[in-house]
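Quick note —
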Amino acid sequence: MTATTWRAENGAWLTVSLRRLRTQMERLAAAQRESGGPTWLVAGDDTASGAAAAAAPAQQTPGFRAALQLVAELTDLSEFEQSMLLLAAAPALDGAFSTACAELHCDPQRDYPTLQLGLALFVPPEERLIAADSLMPTRPLRRLQLIETCEHSDEPLLLRRLGTDERMTNYLRGANHSDRRLEPYLAPLPRAVPSEPAHSTAERICAALQRDNETWPTINLTGPPGCVSLDAIVFACDTVGLEPRKLDIARFAETEPDRRALLVALLGREALLGRLAVVVDAVTISEPSAVATTEDLIRTLPAPLFVLSAERWASRSSHLRTIASGAVTRAQQVSLWQQTLATLPHSINGEINHIAQQFDLTPDAILDTIGRAAAAANGPISAADLWEACRDQRGTGLDELAHKIEPRFGWNDIVVGDSTRAQLRELADQVQHRATVYESWGFAPQFARGRGITALFAGVSGTGKTMAAEILAGELRLSLYRIDLAGVVSKYIGETEKNLRRVFDAAEHSGCILMFDEADALFGTRTEVRDSHDRYANLEINYLLQRMEDYAGLAILATNRRSALDSAFLRRLRFIVEFPFPTAADRRRIWERALPSEAQRGNLDYGQLARFEIAGGNIRSIAINAAFLAASEDSSIQMRHIAHAAAREYGKLSRPVTPAEFGDWLEWVPS
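Predicted structure written out below.
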């Protein structure tokens, strides 16, 4: 049956049903006239011929179901409830019913249906007390907002105005349009990308999507951010004929309690009438109101509900079904990369393994990345195009949680010892050759967890730790984000882990380098537990180290005091790179690099400059300040400018200006 044919038959059915309802009302009016007034018990079985008469079907095509009948089947309405729904909608479907209601109430102001009128029309006197339960708040007519009952009216329920809203009235007429009040909170899911984990999870969802005692289950899909849960939901809903819609649970929970109660009712109704499956992404929610609203939906929503969470959702509902949703493996990602690229011109050969090892992307992110690389490429897609698109992928959210550092330095800029430089090279090599070692050489099964490359950069301020991280980011063509651990650590139990979780979850698929600065704000000699604070500090440290080990990219801890870190924690780091205080020879080389060749320089004695016992960061600060002093005098950079800037730097460090370091330059030191 076509939609047009069905609507025509629904209209005919509704016309006959309304005509029969009008006949019943005429009989009741005649009985009242004979008794001299609105004596509600005057109508007996001859007049109130039961609910079935009001909702009696017109002649139908075999298999046809009118809209009212469909609602009754979806919400398990009794015959009396069906009749009450038709009565409540009648004035909106035919204005003549308002006049009839006023006449039956013997009150021109009461020109609307009421429960008392419905009981008189459809129920024998001896059954009316029980039948009135149909309009209790827990029954479908009110719980799903099928009938409006003027909730805030002071009148008793028997005499309250009953009606149907525009959405319900249109549905009964055969027009199934979504409720506009829910549009700000619901959105369709993005297109699903085929993958073996998504299809496997979808099969388990379909098996679980069976109504239990006429109640839809809640499917709790567990897994980390970026797993295939959403794709699996799309495939499963397509199989069983549902339309998935994602609910903005945070915005939904922010509404006033009374309005939220109404929205929950409307959501349940909309899900049934529109065959919707409601999806709540609770992986990252933490607000108590959002958690409570999610639990309320689990308990009350009479429709398919999906709740996504990292761990099993704690609920007392007996209708909760938990399904673990797996992530797409690296091998499956490689296959998806290759399949998608096969449809496009490209010059990529063996680089896909390296890309998949560095960037742990979801299927939809892979398609988006290839699309952006193709749009940016001048011709066939190259490995460099793809790498850049992966690095600059959208929506990581890291910019809100960490400071992005643009690499400015190369290997020739850093002045460190041979051992330190060699370790930094080895660190870069491990990042570059992970695909070879783990995948091609078969080490992956031995390191299912803990494949993350972790490092500690230890040295006093200004010795080159951040510069080294920038050099690695430039060498590896990766983004670099600095996180100040001093700002992450919280005195409140559990807050530190929550802050760290936000950082790692945001960075999970970015492949970027994470540099945690001021690590000694969290680390210390904590293995000996003296009080509860020490115990919780150990938990925070273990959480950080575990997330670093599981992180797909490179994670660096930077500290000024290695001695403050316990050896038990140091053993869990793959690299420990020392940045010692520079020797006199190192300081000379730093001075030579700190003053660019383009700068106008006077007769500078770099051997004498190396006498300043300061770190490289301080040397660069002195160099730039001396340059500004010289520029203000329209002069080349002279020793007097450097001595002046050096004295200012010493003041910042609370260090005295001594003849041993400044010698003859003391005359240029500002007073």
